[in-house]
Automatic annotation (TrEMBL):
InterPro entries for this protein: GAF, GAF-like_dom_sf
Span of domain GAF: 1-140
Organism for this UniProt entry: Adhaeribacter aerolatus
SMART domains from the UniProt entry: GAF (SM00065)
Recorded superkingdom: Bacteria
Protein name (record): GAF domain-containing protein
Coiled-coil residue spans: none
Pfam family, one: GAF
Amino acid sequence: MYDDITKIASEICGTPIALLTLIDENRQWFKSKQGLHIEETPREYSFCAHAIINPDEPFIVPDARYDERFHDNPLTTGEPHVVFYAGVPVKDTAGHALGTLCVIDNRPRELSEQKLESLKALAKLVNAHFELRITTIDLEETALKLQKAHAISTTINKEVQSLVSSGQVVSSVHFNELQEAANALEALLASSEVSKE
């Protein structure tokens, strides 16, 4: 899916390079890329590191050769010869920028309002997919907790049925074991309810 988004971004904006970047403390790496053959760059040279400073606004550099921040950047002076850059931050559910969806060219240019709006819309799709992935992981974890709770519940029920059918008196040891199992079940169910919220 991410490759489709970067391909569409490249085609809409008419640029040879489109990237979906993720940025950590030391580097930016490319979750998806069109027109670029490297996998990552140091954060200190990253145009995208500048773009995520304001996560609610696009970041545009019409001609990096004449921009004080980038004119001597190795990505401008050498491969891939970044001259034009436009990036829209992609964010987590709390609104923190994780990286960008960006388009790059080796010649100066402007991006029309229509193309910029299209790039923003594609970045929103990336955000929605990130959120969906997080929700899916949360649901998988909740399902696992519920399976464990069901297993505990089944064990408790079998133990109680066994004791009842044999007519045995429940000793304090058995009672404590059953109580611990019931408490564990309650804790699992409570934590799954919290994660749903």
